[in-house]
Amino acid sequence: xxxxxxxxxxxxxxxxxxxGAVLLxxxxxxxxxGWVLVPFGLLVAGLGAGLAVQAWRRMRFVQGADAPGIVExxxxxxSYMGPQLGGFVSVPELVxxxxxxLRGRRLWRLKQADGQALLVxxxxxxxxxxxxxxxxLPGMDMGAVLAALEPVAGGSGRAVVAGEVAQVLWRxxxxxxxxx
Length: 180
Known about the structure:
Blueprint: H1 4-12, H2 14-31, H3 37-61, E1 67-74, E2 77-81, E3 86-90, E4 94-102, E5 105-112, E6 117-121, E7 124-125, H4 130-136, H5 142-149, E8 166-171
């Protein structure tokens, strides 16, 4: 009954739409007036606005599922299983997150303290779960992550890392060799 393209667009915007509905419901409650309803409605509207911003950021992070393989985030461990590559990294042991362009494909390079690195395609199935992991890393600038994922102007529609082969997006502070 609904075209496939329209259904996919509605599905992609579902979280933003639900947060917008919470925002509108809060504004409607506040418009009813009164000493109790106005503050409560404004509180709900503020919550809806915060949820909408977070949902919009999450939507920008998702790149589709065009790459082979699947990503799973489970109990502090990121795993990627692809047809030729794969592996696991521990979230508490992460020391670096890079966005790498390799052979026309963009990959997350997740490096552990022991030197192990895992390459995960940005557009692998389940890669949207990395948004929550990245958001919990201390000092991670999610704005920089989202900006790095944006397509380059004048490109072929497929985003590439502008002018760099590898872009460091996050490094754990306090790790490394002391020069004292």
